[in-house]
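Bit of a strange request maybe. I'm writing a small parser for structure token strings and I need a real example to test against, not something I typed by hand. Could someone generate the tokens for this chain?
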Amino acid sequence: MSVESQANISKLSAPRLHRTYPRMRLFKQLDAAQAIPLIWVSAPAGSGKTSLIASWLRAREHHAYWYQVDEGDADIATFFYHLGLLCKRAALRRKQPMPLLIPEYLAGLQAFSRHFFRELFKRIKTPGVLVLDNYQDAGLSLHEILQAGCTEIPEGVNVIVISRNNPAPAFARFRANGTLTLLDWEQLRLTQEETCAIANQTVDSPLDDTDVQALYAQSDGWAAGLVLLAKRVRRFAKSGLDPTGSQALFDYFAAELFDRLDSDTRHVLTRSALLPSVSPDTARALSGRMQAESILKTLCRHNTFTVCRRMNSIPCFAPSWNNAFVKNYRRPSVPLCNAKLPNSWRPKATSMPRSSGVSGQMIMRVLPS
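Reply from user aminoacidic:
Good idea to test on real output. This should exercise your parser:
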């Protein structure tokens, strides 16, 4: 088998599940959501989005058609090509080929998209689900295509979009007319009962109530953080070493999220994340970046490091990220922390704008000496 064929099989295959905890609370929500054509699952990296959908589909024995979106799908011709391969795998006996995107169709991309998705949905067995996983990796390029294609979803078929981002404005009409339902971070966040079950499954033996409560508080419902922390609780419980696993969390954040951000966003984060929450005025004063407010809004919209509990609220840094950052700030081996804060940082900390809601004393308490 060629390397290209192997890549295509991976791209068009559902993830393998290993000891995945069945989240019945969310299974029931997904069961109810099937009445709505487009289901959008949005939460930060490591929230268990993919595992949730894959385990639900397996439990319900639906016909699943899985598509792993990646950066290459920013080229719409590539996207339609691989989606065509998925259709071919879904309906091997169907002789009629899928529509081909040729240059003449680019001027009428929405019309082509509707036609393509109509043909795709004809090949899906019902009850069937088309899953677009890691949708955020294609950037903005697929919004117009998916918006047009999802107007053609027939009875008995659902499209599930798994993304770190909330639905783009292009999908506002779907939300307004009730044809899109959102399963977001607030719903995906682990409950204490789920935290206990997953933690005990991770370490292969029961943890005591004190450990579970500590894990629940430290992970803040974040699945990947819980698994990292649970493994370390048992390993270091008797050694006296830091059982919170802040280094492991920090390494995850650095590799999975931080390194992919642009330099201005990284700068604002490293100047602001010593605080549990930060207003635009505070972030602007600490970072010296006039665009700090727009950066914070983008981070909130993309569920990256931040949580906004309600519209126009002050962004709070996710506790797992905030704790890991503070604990690792002075570690010279951690890439995020190699750069020292400028000397101008301390004077700014003691003269924060009144509108910030943060005092200089609060900042100075977490500053390295």
